[in-house]
Structures are given as C-alpha cells and as structure tokens.
Design brief:
S4_RNA-bd_sf; 8 helices; ribosomal protein; rRNA-binding; Structural Genomics Hypothetical 15.5 Kd Protein In mrcA-pckA Intergenic Region, Chain A; RNA-binding; 5-stranded antiparallel beta sheet; Ribosomal Protein S4 Delta 41, Chain A, domain 1; 2 domains; globular; alpha+beta
Length: 206
C-alpha cells in the first residue's frame, strides 16, 4: 500500500465516514475509529470539537492539505465579498488538482496532486505542475498527449462511482475539460455532508 493510499484510508477511519464515496473505503466494513480504543462509545462532541471535525474533514477531502495551506485559503475567502463559507468552497474547487479530480482524469484527489506534480497536465496549452494553481472560469485543462494512455487515467475515466459535475465540461475522448464556473456549496458532489459554516466558526474563535 502506498503512503498516499494509506493516508486516504486513515482519514476515512479517523472521520468515521467514507468522505470520497470510494467502494474500497475501510469505513464500509467497520465504522469505528482506528486503534485499540476505536470501538469505545464516543461521547458527544463539544462545539469546538464539532467545528474542528468539520475543518479536518474538509481539509482532508482536498488531499489532506497542511494547516498553513488551508488557513491561507480561508484567509483569502474571508477577504472576498460574500459568504465566507461559500467563498472557501469556491477557492478549493478552483485548485488545479481538484479540477483534474472532478473531471475524472484520475481516481483520487491524492492521485490528482501527484499527476499535476509530474507534469501531465496543461492549462490553456501550457504545462502547469503546481497542484494549488488557481483555475479561472473558461480555462481549458488537458492531459498531455503522451500521458493520455496511462493506466491511472484509463481507470479513472471508467469509474462508475462518481460523475463530472456540471460546472466542468469534460470531453474524455479528447482528454480535455473546461472550468465553466465557480461552484457554490450545493453544486459540489461531496459524498458526505460538508459544513464550511462550522469551519468559519472555528477560525473566528481560534
């Protein structure tokens, strides 16, 4: 098992939820947490605990971002006019690795980060190898010609467990995707309930 796969499963078990909706998630077999005390009955979370959990779940969903990275994105969401929680989701979904994942070019968000890092992706015809690159509306994301027959890409395109959301137009025959618009929370196909409002409350108090 690779380090990335292990991390993905570890996050699922820590949260007690199958946050990516993956068929192989260990939570599908046992919902209790990891470790020898994982099956103990859990007490009711405090407000702080509930807010922290919401933050960790959202942060983990996008490839287990570091706290520094996530805090920076939150600070930007707070500066922009409008609802901070909605802005946060919009900024996270505009990350290049998130768009590559949403377009079903790779099977997981962890694979998307690695895929971009290794130079397999172009934005408007220019190679970009920075996973956090901020995609703009109308940008065309494509898989480089020599990378289109990679096993990981062919596997992802055929995955039945998720669809491409309507804010991205994907053409798998050409291996291209257009980022149509920045989504609102309700547009994003999360496999579990996300609560960015609790993330806002967490940072407002801490």
């Amino acid at each position: 098992m690779t380090k990335r796969t292990a991390a993905k499963y570890k996050i699922d078990r820590r949260m007690g939820e199958n946050i990516w909706g993956r068929a192989k998630s260990p939570v599908n077999r046992r919902e209790y947490g990891p470790g020898q005390h994982g099956q103990r009955r859990k007490g009711k979370l405090s407000d702080f605990g509930t807010q922290l959990r919401a933050k960790q779940k959202l942060k983990g969903y996008y490839g287990d971002l570091t706290e520094k990275q996530f805090r920076r994105i939150y600070a930007e969401a707070e500066r922009v006019r409008g609802d901070t929680g909605e802005n946060l989701i919009g900024l996270l979904e505009r990350r290049l690795d998130a768009v590559v994942y949403r377009a079903k070019f790779v099977p997981t968000i962890f694979a998307a980060r690695q895929f971009v890092n290794h130079g397999h992706v172009e934005v408007n015809g220019q190679r970009v190898n920075i996973p956090s690159y901020r995609v703009r509306e109308g940008d065309v994301i494509s898989i480089r010609e020599r990378s289109r027959q990679l096993a990981i890409v062919l596997e992802a395109v055929g995955l039945p467990e998720r669809d491409v959301p309507d804010y991205i137009e994907a053409d798998h025959s050409k291996m291209t995707a257009t980022f149509v618009r920045t989504p609102a929370l309700g547009d994003v196909p999360y496999a579990v309930h996300m609560e960015p409002n609790l993330v806002v409350e967490f940072y407002a108090k801490n």
